[in-house]
Amino acid sequence: MARPLPRVLALTLGEPAGIGPDIAIDVWRRRAELSLPPFYIVGDSAFLARRAERLGVPVPMRSVAPGEAAGVFATALPVVELGLAIAAEPGRPDASSAPAAIAAIRRAVADVIAGEAAAVVTNPVAKNVLYRSGFAEPGHTEFLARLAAEATGVAAQPVMLLWSPELAVVPVTIHLPLAEVPGRLDGELIVSTGRIVDRDLRERFGIARPRLAVAGLNPHAGEDGALGQEDIAIVKPAVDRLIAEGIAARGPIPADTMFHAEARASYDAALAMYHDQALIPIKTLAFDHAVNVTLGLPFVRTSPDHGTAFDIAGSGRADPSSLIAAIRLAARLAAGAPASAAVRAMAGAKAP
Q: What DSSP line would sit under 67-134, residue for residue?
């Protein structure tokens, strides 16, 4: 029989030269005031101690195994050691940055797959730093899907959900140049994305019948073909397929009328056709507390919806609000939904 998943969350270091270490330290110091669930950070305790000293905040740290983290969380910041020395200074990524960021993600995912942690919370990474090191994936989302597939043997389609109390929105295409979007957008991608959003909103978020609003690609959703054929030829048939499968979807809807308060009250999640169509409205409405959630994985993953902020790293000025929201949402989703069959099977195999 599979053992129950633990309450503790695995928090990655993120880009060491960015604000990830700063906000992780800040959030741990405020753990009691914020009533946060226990977490450990995957990183290097010596590096974190130097960052805490630079921030001028004394933080006791304890190197732990994942299973020990919850027991020490009240008195020390639990650190699961990567075994890598990290030398990056605030605002100045170096040769230790990418290996540490990548290794932390790998370890956190492995811990969740092994049943040692309930969910993964990732701090921001600098994609350009990762790319220079030979990192092959476009971003966190795609890398997490590869790790999940490697661990479970089942291919995963990752879906990026940007969530806040004000708005939940999904970009159907993610990290693509705008000029490539029309050629890469197809009905099958819209349908498969809609299915995953519907399933995870029901199974993880507890929404009995999720309402999906699907944006058009073109201005005015194509104006009946006058402003482009994609909404007639691709988006509308995909929405019709979702409806035929019993999913409460509607669209294509002109994107410029989808995000005011009255419109947002009519759906549980919006499907946008490209990156900025999704991220501009949520960053306008919830810049400091939106959370990036990866749907379609066999485990829960959340992340702050902001970048590394090299310009203020190490200054103590970083706002931890989005990380706080990411930790709270990860705990909620992990508690509200059972682990996937793959995770349950792997965690059970390790049980004594």
A: GGHHHHTTTSEEEEE-S----PBTTB--TTHHHHHHHHHHHHHHHHHTTS-S-EEPPP--HHHHHHTT
Question: CB of 59 within 8 A of CB of 77?
Answer: yes
Domain locations along the chain: 1-156+298-352, 158-296
CA 301 to chain centre: 5
CATH 3.30.160.70 fits 1-156+298-352, yes or no: no
Say whether domain 158-296 belongs to CATH 3.40.718.10: yes
Q: How far apart are CA 112 and CA 135, in angstroms?
A: 22
**Cβ count near 299 (within 10 Å):** 27
**What is the DSSP secondary structure assignment for residue 158, as one 8-state letter?**
-
Q: Which of 306, 337, 293 is nearest to 141 (CA)?
A: 293
Residue 226 neighbours by CB distance under 10 Å: 10
Closest to 66 in 3D by CA, of 32, 117, 23: 117
Which residue matches tokens 């999640």?
269
Residue 312, token pair as written in the block:
């203020």
Q: Do domains 1-156+298-352 and 158-296 have the same CATH topology?
A: yes
Closest CA to 19 of 144, 126, 102: 126
Measure CA 177 to chain center. 21
Per residue in 223-281, pLDDT tens? 999 989 999 999 999 999 999 999 999 999 999 999 999 999 999 999 999 999 999 99
Token pair recorded at residue 101: 């960021």
For the segment 35-68, what is each residue's pLDDT rounded down to a tens digit? 999 999 999 999 999 999 999 998 999 999 999 9
Helices 45-55 and 20-29: angle between axes, nearest 10 degrees: 80
